[in-house]
């Protein structure tokens, strides 16, 4: 675990390049949860993510020869932006491997921050695949690999967030909610709070579909997940870092897993009600508040908003995922009689005035008495869903509900 002296040195190293981001009490969330909720706004960092801290600190420590040789790294986006800006500021040539699935907005930001100092190589579908290729390049060309989280200097840089938090609050922090991807951020914050504010409960938050730290802690060793959901791209890794794991297994209070759909609901709520743009990983800590609502009453709670690099193109998908999670959007395979007026009867006799058809796919087969249609329906309230099902049963409509059939559902959509 990094000591305080090394973390303070990291803070001195990066002060000239980073923004000291605000710690802001959010009144609406505080009122709702009956406590004081503070947001640490790393979405307001220069690269719109905390990753710049660790990347710049690491690169600033390279020897002259290491700088001349250049560096290589792998990233799903935010580490890449931090490395790119650090390369530009320090005059280091860098190669950055990114998954093919990385949002275009993040790729463009990497290009902007690195300018003529970086080359981007898109490879693989996940961060882990990109990392494997980057390490091969590092070994083959004998250049420094800059890891995104499994490195003591990277962890020291991320730990500077903890120093800023404690410098900007005059009362004890009861809970610190931290998103976990590879574990570098939470490891750094544990190092600070364990030494300065040991009363603070540090709770890690992972996406349900990529809970690699929880799996490792449960197993008592670092394990690799066979399959992950890559939607929360800033926190979706198959394998956490060995150094972060060793720190987390002994000092993390607990881990909360948040469904991807709930994360989407939080993204929309922050955008619509707070005018805050966050990426999926940046919404993790705030999404976890519901799971702690009883025990945090009257307490001081800090949520790390880790990043705000969200591509506007993804908003339609985010909205759909949110509505599915909130049980407002439902998909059916419905057998309609192949006669005139069948659809009209369904609309008039089954749907209420607040139900809305948002998807309809049907092809008539002349040699059949019935034909299947893929139908998507949005209800106004979750309770309206049961009323919809009851009406279809009363009318003896033949249907198959698809939301709970994950393989079929994801294939169709």
Question: Your description of this structure?
Answer:
The protein has helices spanning 4-14, 27-33, 51-60, 64-69, 78-90, 104-114, 127-141, 152-167, 184-196, 212-219, 242-251, 260-274, 284-287, 315-325, 342-349, 384-394, 406-412; strands spanning 23-25, 36-41, 71-74, 94-98, 118-122, 144-146, 175-179, 201-207, 254-258, 300-305, 329-337, 356-362, 370-378, 398-401. The protein has 413 residues and is of the alpha/beta class. The model has no long low-confidence stretch (mean pLDDT 93). It starts with a helix and ends with a helix. The strands form 3 sheets. Strands 1-2-10-7-8-9 form a 6-stranded mixed β-sheet, with helices on both faces. Helix 1 crosses helix 8 (152-167), helix 5 runs parallel beside helix 6 and helix 9 crosses helix 11. Strand 4, helix 6 and strand 5 form a beta-alpha-beta unit. The protein has 3 domains: 4-50 and 152-320, Rossmann fold (3-Layer(aba) Sandwich), CATH 3.40.50; 51-146, Rossmann fold (3-Layer(aba) Sandwich); 327-412, Alpha-Beta Plaits.
């Amino acid at each position: 675990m990094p000591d305080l002296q090394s973390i303070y040195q990291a803070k001195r190293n990066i002060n000239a390049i980073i923004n000291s981001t605000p710690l802001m009490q959010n009144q609406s969330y505080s009122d709702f949860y009956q406590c004081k909720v503070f947001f640490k706004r790393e979405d307001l960092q220069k690269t719109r993510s905390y990753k710049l801290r660790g990347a710049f600190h690491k690169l600033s420590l390279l020897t002259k020869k290491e700088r001349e040789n250049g560096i290589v790294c792998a990233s799903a986006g935010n580490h890449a932006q931090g490395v790119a800006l650090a390369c530009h500021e320090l005059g280091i040539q860098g190669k950055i491997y990114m998954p093919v699935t990385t949002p275009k907005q993040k790729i463009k930001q990497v290009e902007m921050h690195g300018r003529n100092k970086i080359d981007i190589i898109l490879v693989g579908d996940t961060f882990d695949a990109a990392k494997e290729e980057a390490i091969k390049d590092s070994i083959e060309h004998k250049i420094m690999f800059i890891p995104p989280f499994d490195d003591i200097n990277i962890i020291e840089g991320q730990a500077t967030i903890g120093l800023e938090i404690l410098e900007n609050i005059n009362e004890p922090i009861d809970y610190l909610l931290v998103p976990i991807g590879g574990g570098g951020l939470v490891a750094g914050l544990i190092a600070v709070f364990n030494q300065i504010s040991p009363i603070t409960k540090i709770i890690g938050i992972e996406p349900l579909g990529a809970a690699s730290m929880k799996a490792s802690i449960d197993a008592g060793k670092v394990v690799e997940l066979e399959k992950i959901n890559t939607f929360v791209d800033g926190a979706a890794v198959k394998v956490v870092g060995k150094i972060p794991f060793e720190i987390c297994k002994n000092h993390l209070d607990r881990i909360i897993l948040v469904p991807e759909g709930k994360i989407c609901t939080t993204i929309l709520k922050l955008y619509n009600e707070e005018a805050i743009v966050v990426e999926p990983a940046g919404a993790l800590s705030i999404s976890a508040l519901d799971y702690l609502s009883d025990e945090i009453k009257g307490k001081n709670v800090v949520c790390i908003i880790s990043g705000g690099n969200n591509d506007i193109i993804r908003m339609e998908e985010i909205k759909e995922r949110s509505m599915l999670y909130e049980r407002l959007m439902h998909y059916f395979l419905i057998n309609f009689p192949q006669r005139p007026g069948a659809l009209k009867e369904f609309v008039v006799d089954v749907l209420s005035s607040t139900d809305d058809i948002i998807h309809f796919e049907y092809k008539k087969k002349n040699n059949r008495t019935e034909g299947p249609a893929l139908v998507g329906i949005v209800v106004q309230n979750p309770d309206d869903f049961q009323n919809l099902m009851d009406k279809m049963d009363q009318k003896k409509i033949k249907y198959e509900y698809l939301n709970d059939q994950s393989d079929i559902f994801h294939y169709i959509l």
